[in-house]
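Researcher: We're teaching a course module on how sequence relates to structure. For the next exercise, students receive a sequence and then see the predicted structure as tokens, so they can try to spot secondary structure elements on their own. Here is the exercise chain.
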Amino acid sequence: VQLQASGGGLVQAGDSLRLSCAASGRTFSRYAMGWFRQAPGKEREFVAAITWSGSSTYSADSLKGRFTISRDNAENTVYLQKNSLKPEDTAVYYCAAWSGGISSKVDYWGKGTLVTVSS
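Model: And here is the predicted structure for the students to work with:
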């Protein structure tokens, strides 16, 4: 599975932004998908994940209510809708795929997309 994230850019605090991650391969629907982010000088952290069927989603506690993950298996794409953006949301966002459970090791990483939130 190859993952390509897009949708990053420069936005202002309070804006919304939707990231997309397009996956290649015919087995996309078998993978749980998710997003991580890495801010300057910080470690990569979990943002959100969604099961292969889309029936369950998980989000970092600090981001619940602002970030929503979804997927379209027909389009081989996973999305991250981000609302009420804050300067501390500035980071490179990476999409990820798991062949096993979300608590297991990530199997595939996409190249990141940079989101910069100005105050």
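Model: If you want an answer key for the exercise: The chain is about 0% helix and 50% strand. The CA atoms of residues 69 and 80 lie 5 Å apart.
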